[in-house]
Amino acid sequence: MKWFFAFGCYLFSLSAFATLNDGIEALEKQNYSQALAEFKTLASVGNAEARFYLGIMQKNGYGMPADAGRALGWFKKAASQGYAPANREMGKMYLIGEGVDADLEEAVELLEAAAEQGDEAAQMEVGQLYIAGGKVEKDSARAAQWLEKAAAQGNSQAQYQLANLLYQGDGVEKNIEQALKWYQQAAAASQVDAQYTLAYLYMDGQAITQDYPRAFSLFQQAAQAGNRNAQYMLGYMLDQGMGVAKNPKSAFDWYLKAAQQGYDEAQLIVGYMYFTGKGATKNQALAEDWVSKAVAQGNAKAKKLLEEMHRAAGQ
Question: What residue ranges in the chain does DSSP mark as E strands?
Fold first, then answer.
């Protein structure tokens, strides 16, 4: 009979796992009624993860009225069973006073509890708190410890922020070699800021062997993801022929993308290229329009260029 009982428990666990996965899949597909039914069934027999997901649904109003207080209740039940993400969510709610009076001490305690349990998102959250300071006393060394734990789990944002601390030696021992390792890992995971930073380092050649083609490739990846600084730098490399053949037209196109995102240096260059006809058809009106945008942002070089353009036009 013992084997029969054990086999029955095994079948039940498989069934619960399948139901939980069905609920998660339904939630991801925004099929909230199905997700709610699956999670409620499991929560009624004490499944911590199902209780956590009911908290998420209640907090965000998925398939039921949004109610942060009730969501907190679900998170507390899941947390009491040792489910780390529930501690993390409660910590975030206590941090901002969502569904409960704000309590910084309780928030940090809950977030660190989740982080100690190995919750990657909580490790990242705690690390950012200690980097920023303000809500807690700034502590870069402590931040680095938590960021490293999240980074080791593959969190690319943690990898990038840890790299910044190590590269700058901000409250931790400066370690360029380790910084580059984390920048590279984050960039490989498509973390855009890491791609931009690493590209700049390859172009600069101070901390790492100069490699214009590698820099161009990384700027291109970040630029395609919408990073305006990378778009500007990609334009610059095409304009100057760094790691790639000179191509004023393509350079103009990337400068324009950055300018359209409000980057004043790019607005200045776009205006200049319209003014001179380099990479773009000459157009005095557009030239003045783009340079004026940069002037409006306080760009001194743009103000000087605009004055020269007016003199050239006899104004």
Answer: none
Of residues 3 and 42, more confidently modeled: 42
**Residue 214's closest CA among 236, 193, 195?**
195
Q: What is the pLDDT of residues 98-133, one digit of tens each?
A: 999 999 999 999 999 999 999 999 999 999 999 998
The enclosing domain of 155 has a CATH number of 1.25.40.10
Q: Which domain holds residue 48?
A: 15-96+106-113
- Tens-digit pLDDT profile for residues 11-34: 345 445 558 999 999 999 999 999
DSSP codes of every residue in 143-202: HHHHHHHHHHTT-HHHHHHHHHHHHHTSSS---HHHHHHHHHHHHHTT-HHHHHHHHHHH
Tokens of 208: 């790492």
Is position 194 within any domain?
Answer: no
CB-based contacts of 239: which residues, under 8 Å, 6+ apart? 246, 248, 251, 255, 279
Determine what percent of the chain falls in helix, strand and coil, rounding each to the nearest 5: 75, 0, 25
Q: Is 64 exposed, middle or buried (0-12, 13-18, 19+ CB in 10 A)?
A: middle
Residues 22 and 62 in one domain: yes
Burial class of residue 65 (count of CB atoms within 10 Å of its CB; 0-12, 13-18, 19+)? exposed
Please give the C-alpha separations between residue 24 and each of 15, 27, 72, 119, in angstroms, as whole numbers.
14, 5, 19, 19
